[in-house]
Amino acid sequence: MFLLKSLDLTGLLLLGLVLLGHTERPLAKAGNKTVWTGEGSTENLKEIMIGRCFNYLGTVNVDAGEKDCPNLWKAFLSAFSEKDPCKITTEDYQPFLDLAGHDIPINQSIFWSQTKGLILQYTGVTHKVMPLESTLVGYMVDGLNWCGKLSSPEPNFEACPGWKECENNSISSFWKAASEDYARRAHGEVTVMLNGSARGDTFRNNSIFAEIELGELDNARVTFVHLWIMDNIDGPDKESCDVGSVAVLERILKEKNISYSCKDNYKAAKMLQCMDKLDHPSCRLGEKPIA
């Protein structure tokens, strides 16, 4: 009787382990050790990127010059292929950036932090600016996920490091390198759109704009900076021009001898925010004017 009870208990434990294994999300492993837990590379990554490249050159921006799209994919893949996904450097992406890079039209560079959706909306409607995501470099990869693995030259479609899981992961290193390259190409008047309703600071010291892009702006190439501090449509109005971290940014621009202006809730961008919320108090005619 004791033996039967022991067997029943063992069977139940095994069944529980099997069920647990089926309900947990698969994790990337190195031996028996979990290495990372982020989403794997986007399915059909190669085909998507090459297709985007041809579309960009053929319809989106015919002025980007002649590019070899399959060769661009090879240069991109070589940056992280057969490498530790947590040891990818910004330098690894330089060959791809050199091949894919093109001039940004004068006065059309625009930088953002915590306002990506509004930036892309404004870009699509006005066609007056070209953010990083609207260059060939950004267009080919925006919204995608990727990393490699030591055991294969192909992308890892099972799992990749999350943005904060390791500092030098495939995606964060790419966007840092691409952002630096983009900022170096900026000339004439540039625009910066920040979120005045951000949970933390509007101008964050650890943002890519603060850490990388701002440092590349100099008064030899950049003649003027337009600062737009945009509140979320439902607020709150936490920071504005000359207030808090925005004042810190303004001081940095002064120290760099770059002329600038600052507007709270720039009217054209505010109108786009109001398109889907026409009855919102801040969108009604006769309410508090917007800059």
Short description:
By secondary structure, the chain is of the alpha/beta class. The chain has ten helices and eight strands.
What does this structure look like?
With 291 residues, the chain is an alpha/beta fold. The protein has helices spanning 2-23, 45-60, 69-78, 94-100, 116-126, 136-141, 170-184, 208-216, 244-255, 267-274; strands at 28-30, 33-36, 38-39, 110-113, 159-160, 188-195, 222-230, 260-264. The chain starts with a helix and ends in a 17-residue tail after the last helix.
Unreliable segments of 5+ consecutive residues: 1-7, 12-27, 30-34, 286-291
Determine the mean pLDDT: 88
Count of helical segments?
A: 10
End-to-end C-alpha gap:
84 Å
The string of secondary-structure elements, in order, is HEEEHHHEHHEHEHEHEH
What proportion of the residues form beta strands (DSSP E)? 5-15%
User: How many whole angstroms does the radius of gyration measure?
Assistant: 24 Å
Biggest β-sheet: strands ordered side by side in the sheet: 4-6-7-8
Question: What characteristics describe this protein?
Answer:
two-stranded antiparallel ribbon, 8 strands, single chain, alpha/beta, 10 helices, disordered N terminus, four-stranded parallel sheet, 291 residues
